[in-house]
Specification:
- With 497 residues, the chain is an all-alpha fold.
- The protein has two domains: 289 residues, no CATH class; 95 residues, no CATH class.
- The chain is built from 25 helices and no strands.
Length: 497
Amino acid sequence: MNLIVRMPHSNIQRMRWVLVIAAGTLLLCVPALLNGAPFVYFDSADYLGMVSQMANLLAQKLDGAGALPVDAALVASGDEDYLVYTGRSVYYSGFVWFARKLLGLNGVVILHALALAALLVPITRLARPAAGPAFTQMAVLILCAGLGLLSSAGLFVSLVMPDIWAGLLILAIGLIVAVGARLGWPARLALGAVIALAALFHTSHLLLLATLTGLLALLMLRPSWRRHLGAWSVGVPALAVIIGLAGSAAFSLFVTWTTGRPPVSRPHVTAHLVDMGPGTQFMQDTCPESGFVLCAYADRLPTNWMDFLFADDTETGVFDTVPNHIKRALADEQARFTLATLAAEPWETVNGLLYDGVSQLWSLSVDDVPFTRNNADYLAGAFWEEIVEVTQASAIWDRPWMAPAFTRLTQVSTALAAAGLLVLALAGRLPRTGPLAVLILVCLGGLILNAFICGMLASPYGRFQARIVWLLPLLLGLAILSTFGPATSKGDAHERD
């Protein structure tokens, strides 16, 4: 198993691995290269600008300006509540800022791809640990090409969003669980850094990490599993959970210190319950007596969860149409509203949430993810001129059909990979023991947990699951390597790490 973690001894071998990782990075970036620019999404604007927003808040606080300047429209309405949202990670925004300083906007894509390519090296070695470097290097390149061209990984590597880090999180945990006790300190630190960064980059990643860590901790209660897993299997993810929670707390404290008010989380669960039905029924049955702030907008219900949160018209939208102090009140009452809805409509609520969690497993559309000319108004209003020009010059801008093509690619590659894994399992050719079997188990568990976390707490939405289903083609490739690849590469014995 040392083959998985030891560095090559000769400079020639090190250079070969550097070249392999560089080539793998390039292969994973192919969608962005063909597009002529990284892809952007609605939320990308927030990630591109949050560091500047936080810097402005700090500057105003240090200048002793007192109360923050508020838009004239808000002053006229008497609403001087300054909102900072928690749904966009300032830490990923810092990552984007750093990448852009290094290599421009393309730097975001390159660092995404580099992280995945580097992680694929030890993962590929799990499939054939006795094989020589040449075989492993070729396998890494094949996997990078397959993921970049034939799965959703290429799209999400090329997207200025933290989505790709959900898959990196699952892979890093899988490696820690599979071979954590035999990893050296550099490898443990590197994997821990990937997990911690993923936890800092999005709240859903932190929830996924905490759930996986909790399940691992439960397994550790059994002596047989405790001997197999080892302390590192739970210790590293648990430390990353602490780092993620500390990061969230630090952001909240910073916002509270600079603005005098805590950040606000959009009420996704409220929107989901309203869209699903029980929340709307509860409002219609109990308002205005129940006293919820949402009662004032019950005539707009039911409405789609995205319209509830983001639509700016008063017929279908709620959250984005109300003053800031009402937004804060809607967010603050979310937990109470959820519990009240559950108490009033227990069967409908639980059944609906479970159904949506299962539905998220195969909700894989990315039709509205990469921006095309259909998003011209939003692009012009939310993004900097530099980003607008680059996006409008990209290949996908005047070819909106390419977005649904990414959806078909994601759905087909996922279906074929799932079928391939099932065939190997039925044929008894899928690894059942050993590190690769553990990695496969962790990845499948991560796929299921991600669906339930996103589908239940938000709502089924294609991007939520499409961002990680590229794990299935990867697992199929690894299973094929382990089953049909050579145990050793002839002529490579003298080069072995």
